[in-house]
Amino acid sequence: MQDVLQSLGIPATDEPLSGVYAGGWVASPGGDTMSTTNPTTGATLGLVANGGAADYEACVGSAQEAFLRWRLLPAPQRGEYVRRCGEALRAKKEELGALVTLEMGKIRAEGEGEVQEMIDIADFAVGLSRQLYGKTMHSERPGHRMYEQWHPLGPIGIISAFNFPVAVWSWNAFIAAVCGDTMIWKPSELTPLCAIAVQNIVNEVMEPDGFGGVFNLCCGTAQPVGETMIADRRLPLISATGSVRMGKRVGEVVGGRLGRSLLELGGNNALLVMDDANLDLALSAVLFGAVGTAGQRCTTTRRVLLHESVAETFTKRLVDAYGQVRIGDPLEGTTLMGPLIHEGSVETMLAAVESVKRAGGEILCGGERATVAGCEGGHFVKPTIARVSADFPLLKEETFAPLVYLVTVSDLDQAIALQNDVPQGLSSAVFTTGVQSAERFLGHAGSDCGIANVNIGTSGAEIGGAFGGEKDTGGGREAGSDSWKAYMRRQTCTINYTDELPLAQGIRFGPA
Ligand code: UN1
């Protein structure tokens, strides 16, 4: 593993590594020093020096200075830099994926999958750099032309979560970069090494041409970094991914200064299995959706709503499948489920299990810690299935762990009502072979989520679509489709090429 770290520019040292890049690595950042741990073993992976107030200022200064130059570069040329960042990531896919596994705890396939998501969004952004289209309108006035165009927004702030420590940054950063923005990244305090490694990779591309200040990094805690960033009027946009609690704070502070926020917060995703579903597909989808990433995706399947005619068969098959899940060191190829990020997550999950029992629900499997030989300090749990009634209160909460609730329903209407009856609105899925059920699920009276799938699970979205959700999920959209518009400012332009000055709405103004 030492080789992997070294190839990502992370030296083996007992000294704290700099967690601040402000157009160049800041040698001794003034914030506190934090240690980062491997959730699989509990061992310390390294020490990181966080940014203090002056370091944050240096990041803003760097992003502001770079913005003045970056915004003048034609968008396709900015795209060329992003293309090369994608190439640099391709070259380090295995190593960066392994570091994600080491610091976050997801299995190798998922760690590398996350890097692939970065590569995919880079490719997408390169194409986008030639497609930042505005519309042309027909003016109501003769001899007038009217159109809209999109300009870069400025330096922006990106706050990301531990569970996707590298990909979510890239969804924002690569799109924002082709849009002409520069940025400051505040990564999760739990995964600073992943952020430092990513910074090193993009630096290779950006620094030789004096564009290091396009991507800046400020590791740190809420005080002084996070809170300062969200209140900072110099950053017109804050894109934040994480908990609903965090997002509410970001939305409040950024809204208070009339800035823009792009929020991608918690989900409470339901998967509906109808009486005509292909149960093999549904089973695989629930397994990946609920157990994948140890239940720590915002898109994780948290509720499975089973039609009464298939409930018994499906439940039995699911419990059998859970029995086969290999829990272990996520670096090992045969492991399907690694640890949770920390002890707090284990305790939250075990508390939810107790609530299930108190409410008269049944724990069908799991519901306890797991031990893994050689990884005694790891935060392992058994993947858990709980059968609960439709009024179980925790059905409305996101427990960030591999705990899935099964609820039996009598028809599609009840399933859709139940699926929508939660504060969050990120992802949803129905398994059915019937066109009517599928279309009703997707219709205006169907799923209220930002993502609605048919015969595909709730997690594992492609980058080409807009990613995000409604209600407590925050309303933001990142990644593909026209999400780029959040990173630019729109300007409506009207040009008069006559010698008259007619007013809109036919107004006559002036001396008779
Ligand atoms: C997240 O958990 O914040 O759709 C992002 C998915 C991934 C992204 C998850 N592509 O599951």
List the helices and strands and how they pair.
Elements: H1 2-7, E1 17-18, E2 20-21, E3 33-37, E4 44-49, H2 53-70, H3 75-91, H4 93-104, H5 108-128, E5 136-137, E6 144-152, E7 155-159, H6 167-179, E8 182-186, H7 192-206, E9 215-218, H8 222-231, E10 237-241, H9 244-256, E11 260-264, E12 269-273, H10 279-291, E13 301-307, H11 311-323, H12 343-358, E14 362-365, E15 384-387, E16 403-409, H13 412-420, E17 424-425, E18 427-431, H14 435-442, E19 451-454, E20 466-467, E21 470-471, E22 478-479, E23 488-496
Parallel strand pairs: 1-4, 7-8, 7-10, 8-9, 10-11, 12-13, 12-18, 13-16, 15-16, 18-19
Antiparallel strand pairs: 2-9, 3-4, 5-6, 6-23, 14-15, 17-21, 20-22
Quick summary:
With 512 residues, the protein is α/β, with parallel strands linked by helices. It is built from 14 helices and 23 strands. 2-aminohexanedioic acid is lined by residues 117, 163-164, 168, 241, 297-299, 459-461.
CATH topology term of the largest domain: Aldehyde Dehydrogenase, Chain A, domain 1
CATH-level-4 superfamily name of the largest domain = Aldehyde Dehydrogenase, Chain A, domain 1
Bound molecules: 2-aminohexanedioic acid
- Structurally, the number of domains stands at 2
Give the distance, in angstroms, between the N- and C-terminal Cα atoms: 84 Å
Indicate the CATH architecture of the largest domain.
3-Layer(aba) Sandwich
